[in-house]
Amino acid sequence: MAAAYGRGSHWRGLGRHGAAHARTRGFTLLELMVTLGVLGILSTIAYPSMRDFMRRNRAVAQSNSIRSDMQFARGQAAATRSYLSVCPLAIAGTTTCSSAGKSYDQGWLVYTASKPNIAYDASVTGSLQRAASAPGGTSIRASSGGVLTFNSRGELLVGGVPKSVSVIICAKQGDDDSIGTNTTAVPGVQLNIATSGRAASSKLATSEGCS
Predict the structure, then answer these.
(1) What is the largest CA-CA distance in the chain?
(2) CB of 119 closer than 8 Å to CB of 88
(3) Residue 176 pLDDT
(4) pLDDT in tens, 164-198
(5) 150 within 8 A of 157, measured Cβ to Cβ
(6) Transmembrane region positions (predicted)?
(7) Most buried pick, 18, 32, 99, 116, via CB within 10 A?
(8) In this structure, are residues 87 and 108 in contact, taking their beta carbons and an 8 Å threshold?
């Protein structure tokens, strides 16, 4: 009986050793190659979707940014009973307004003004309210060029008279592109500002361009 018990213990010990060895066995070369191949296929499928997701987020973020500044200008104009203007910059990183430009790709300023639709005057202390830097990876185009102004009633003025304006925001495919694109996968955003000054955003129709 003792001998039998010893032999059984011996075999059970071998069984435990064999199981431990099986558990610690690594990948074979074939298994590793198959795993890498599957990962490569999944990456190829996922990359375009992730890229489009990031471009959509950029367009939405920039549309929210310029809409926020427009709403701020309107609110401040009504609250202070004064003129607040928004102008596209001629050169990024400066305070020089583009007098007739429709592109906000270089950034924009929000400032108080003595009368509607005049450029920012840096000599007027305290007039600058906000300065937005150049938007990365997106293009922003307005339907009316130059300075946009909100009066004390919150109305949007262009050329001194109430007028509605639309702003198109599109994600660029590459940083060197001059203008973004509007596609089904990555639609642009259209910001509509009514003569009353109220702003509303919507997805840009697929038939519309970004300029």
Answers:
(1) 111
(2) no
(3) 87
(4) 999 999 999 988 899 999 999 999 999 999 999 99
(5) yes
(6) 27-48
(7) 116
(8) yes
Quote the Cα angle for 193-196-202, to 5°.
25
CA–CA dist 163, 140 (Å, integer): 19
CA-closest candidate to residue 101, choices 65, 159, 141:
141
Please state, in angstroms and as integers, the Cα–Cα distance from residue 99 to each residue in 81, 87, 90, following that order.
25, 8, 8
The string of DSSP codes covering 2-44 is HHHHHHHHHHHHHHHHHHHHHHT----HHHHHHHHHHHHHHHH
Beta-ladder partners of 170: 139
Token pair of 173, please? 């495919």
Question: How do beta strands 83-88 and 108-113 pair?
Answer: antiparallel
Q: Which residue numbers in the chain have pLDDT < 70?
A: 1-27, 31, 37-38, 40-48
- Dig out the tokens for 25 from the structure: 């066995």
Report the side by side order of strands in the sheet with 189-193: 138-142, 165-171, 189-193, 199-203
Tell me the two tokens of residue 163. Answer: 């007028």
CA dihedral 151, 154, 158, 159 (to 10 degrees): -20
| Token pair in block for residue 204 | 């840009």
Q: 162-197 b/e with 16+ CB inside 10 Å = b? A: ebebebbbbbbeeeeeebbbbeeebbbbbbebeeeb
